[in-house]
């Protein structure tokens, strides 16, 4: 993980914590290389998840470490989710890491699990929201004093003006994390939670990058997710496993989680056999 505030508390005593891979300004390269080498010695593999929004220099540092160590045992997973969504994904991968899956399966499960995270926010303005498609109409409405908007960034971007519609929620039972910025509202707990049939709501600290990501500090971020490790395990187990022709590790989906090489389907194999090939969650009957 690239930031300590994206490491959520464990869900149980078995869930391991995460290691923070620091930015170039916080740690010299030789120390970063030494730390990564030690992690590989201790654990065999390292799955590094980082938000797509991190500084370019930090992302370059991660790739440089992987390149210098010449290791297919380091997975670099760029998560295009809001900060709280990234934190949820990292915790789910931490849960999976102690199951009987290979490192390649755990790494490539990140793309699968991302489909099941409903990440959004309540904001008082969308004028600086550039990570989610926003119509001109919504831009105009945001100038009206007192307007608030519900935004869903993942899995399917959506934007509504509060009081004139609903955000489309998951079609499976979830828990909800809520992280409050500088906005006073009970909309998430009073509207989203019951509409999405959320089983439990937990408040956590707002990640430091959330105001930048959402374009305003006057916001409340939320993320609905599958809380049950047995269900997550079943989900990952249900997807056909392949062997990467490049690095030899196991994978699910159409790309190796460790070396990022695309899966080359055999000539006689019909495509679309896995959940990820279709790009839609299994629970949805669309």
Keywords summarizing the entry:
286 residues; alpha+beta; Hypothetical Protein Tm841, Chain: A,domain 3; two-stranded parallel sheet
Task: Characterise this structure.
Residues 267-280 have a biased composition (Polar residues). Residues 266-286 are annotated as: Disordered. With 286 residues, the protein is of the alpha+beta class. The protein folds into two domains: 4-116 and 230-262, no CATH class; 118-225, Hypothetical Protein Tm841, Chain: A,domain 3 (2-Layer Sandwich). It is 30% helix and 18% strand. The protein has helices at residues 29-43, 56-68, 83-96, 103-114, 136-141, 187-195, 210-214, 229-237, 275-278, and strands spanning 46-51, 74-79, 118-123, 149-154, 158-161, 175-180, 200-204, 219-225, 241-243, 250-252. The strands form three sheets. A six-stranded mixed β-sheet has the order 5-4-3-8-6-7, with helices on both faces. It has a two-stranded parallel ribbon with strand order 1-2. Strands 9-10 form a two-stranded antiparallel ribbon. α3 packs antiparallel against α4 (103-114). 40% of the residues are buried.
Radius of gyration: 19 Å
Secondary structure tally, helices: 9
Run of helices and strands: HEHEHHEHEEEHEHEHEEH
Summed over residues and divided by their number, the pLDDT gives a mean of 89
Shape: globular
Oligomer: single chain
Distance between the termini: 34 Å
Topology:
Blueprint: H1 29-43, E1 46-51, H2 56-68, E2 74-79, H3 83-96, H4 103-114, E3 118-123, H5 136-141, E4 149-154, E5 158-161, E6 175-180, H6 187-195, E7 200-204, H7 210-214, E8 219-225, H8 229-237, E9 241-243, E10 250-252, H9 275-278
Parallel strand pairs: 1-2, 6-7
Antiparallel strand pairs: 3-4, 3-8, 4-5, 6-8, 9-10
Helix pairs in contact: 3-4
Biased composition (Polar residues): 267-280
Region (Disordered): 266-286
